[in-house]
């Protein structure tokens, strides 16, 4: 009897291999041959899962976008502290900024995809959808903080969510290149959130 192949599991393994290659050597290092080697599968297996390199990159970006969103939501749902809006906002922003040392590889991959999306409409579309979901999450958190009285009553959640997304994205890049340390980046985020308080 032929061996059953779990294509979804294989696609995820290939996406992980794409991310490992990007984190190690940049977007230009991603070839079907190198991805196959990194994933421990044949080139034919990669080609059965993805017709083109662009399709493979698109899937990898969707996968990493989903992981970042899930991590941000998990920081809200598993918070053992009282459900303070500022605590939840702080934890969520640190998850989105990818500034912790353990997030470095993911930040490198994210930055490579953002840069590549400037010339790839397919990747740009995935990023727009990801940013929209993260924006909605921040709008909810900011609205929650305003409703509980922790944040200013005059706060404009959609406008502040846009600013916070831009801030986290900029801090990710600055930590990657060494302009900021993870500690100084977290301090910038904390200072911004304190400025929103009532």
Main β sheet profile: none
Q: Give the beta-strand count.
A: 0
Give Rg in angstroms.
19 Å
Distance between the termini: 67 Å
Name the beta content range.
under 5%
> Strand-and-helix sequence, N→C?
HHHHHHHHH
| Mean pLDDT across residues | 90
Helix count equals 9
SS class: mainly alpha
Overall geometric form:
elongated
Q: How helix-rich are the residues, as a percent range?
A: over 70%
Low-confidence stretches: none
Task: Report on this structure.
The protein has 198 residues and is an all-alpha fold. Helix content is 75%, strand content 0%. It is elongated. The chain starts with 6 loop residues before the first helix and ends with a helix. The mean pLDDT is 90.
Give the structure's gist in a few sentences.
With 198 residues, this protein is mainly alpha-helical. Helices cover 75% and strands 0% of the residues. The N and C termini lie far apart (67 Å).
Task: Write out key terms for the chains shown.
9 helices; mainly alpha; elongated; 198 residues
What is this structure's SSE topology?
Layout: H1 7-25, H2 32-39, H3 43-49, H4 53-77, H5 85-97, H6 104-117, H7 121-148, H8 157-177, H9 182-195
Helix pairs in contact: 1-2, 1-4, 1-6, 2-3, 4-5, 4-7, 5-7, 5-8, 5-9, 6-7, 7-8
